[in-house]
Amino acid sequence: MTAPRMTSRREPRPYVTLSSAMSIDGYLDTALPPRLMLSNAADFDRVDELRAENDAILVGARTIRKDNPRLLVRSEDRRGLRASAGRSRLPWKVTVTATGDLDPCSAFFVVGDTRKLVYCPSSVQGTLHRRLGSLASVVGLGEDVTMIDLLSDLCERGVQSLMVEGGGMVHTQFLASGLADELQLVVAPFFVADEQAPRLVRNGAFPWTADHRARLVEVRPIGDVVLLRYGLSERCVEESKIASPRVRPASVFSAGIRA
Ligand SMILES: NC(=O)c1ccc[n+]([C@@H]2O[C@H](COP(=O)([O-])OP(=O)(O)OC[C@H]3O[C@@H](n4cnc5c(N)ncnc54)[C@H](OP(=O)(O)O)[C@@H]3O)[C@@H](O)[C@H]2O)c1
To answer: What is the pTM for the complete model shown?
Structure first.
């Protein structure tokens, strides 16, 4: 497998890109169905490209239960490019659960000819393995699943780049444990304003604060949404694409103030 943005092979974990879309007020969805469409067609195509770049895609079990996502690369061209580079045509699919409450008929398991991995506490591994059979590899990771253990296991299996598509509980853990290398965040031009709805993150202590700010590497309007890309580790070597603000001559400011 290849890792386009991996910078150091000594790091024993995959390069992690968090990807999400949210409303202006930071919500991932509404509280009740149907699923909220935050993005637009051009942005879905960008997400498709990002999926195609990565070795594996991870979502939390609640996202599977609520959204039933397929997590495929839609573009045949991108699938073909992966195959000609010696990679699987589709990225692997990865999820994590504590309860084991996963429906074997979910699109996650039945759509797309690629490897599926389910991480869970060792106590539910047997039950889940019996439920899913050959649909997925079920991996027990001790008493509690931590993201660092999950990444180590993926690394041992050859995964060098992981795209994390949410939801908020999963994003929170990668961010709070400092395991995300990059955040690609799309902001949709409307509000949800319902505290019952899921947010981009839960409560937590994050490494990025007012005194330790994340590095903004790109701002890209995509139709009516905007993509914000943040470098969260030194492994994100992306050059900043942010233009310096044009400084207006002092005389213009003074003229404005006087007016
Ligand atoms: N706008 C977007 O870009 C976007 C993307 C994805 C999802 N979403 C939305 O986000 C919402 C879901 O987000 P969410 O925060 O509620 O849930 P989530 O992060 O998708 O999934 C949480 C679930 O994952 C499992 N899990 C997470 N960490 C675990 C750990 N360390 N050990 C074991 N299991 C773990 C648990 O599953 P069990 O409950 O099975 O134990 C947990 O309940 C949905 O409304 C979805 O539509 C939006």
So the answer is: 0.91
Index of the ligand 1 atom closest to the CA of residue 67 = 47
According to CATH, the topology of domain 15-258 is: Dihydrofolate Reductase, subunit A (3.40.430)
CA 64 – CA 106 distance, rounded (Å): 7
Cβ of 98 closer than 6 Å to ligand 1, yes or no, is yes
Q: Atom 21 of ligand 1 has which residue's CA nearest to it?
A: 60
Domain ranges of the chain: 15-258
Segment 12-41, tens digit of pLDDT: 899 999 999 999 999 999 999 999 999 999
Residue 210 Cα to ligand 1 midpoint, Å, equals 27
Residue 237 φ then ψ, to 5°: -100, 10
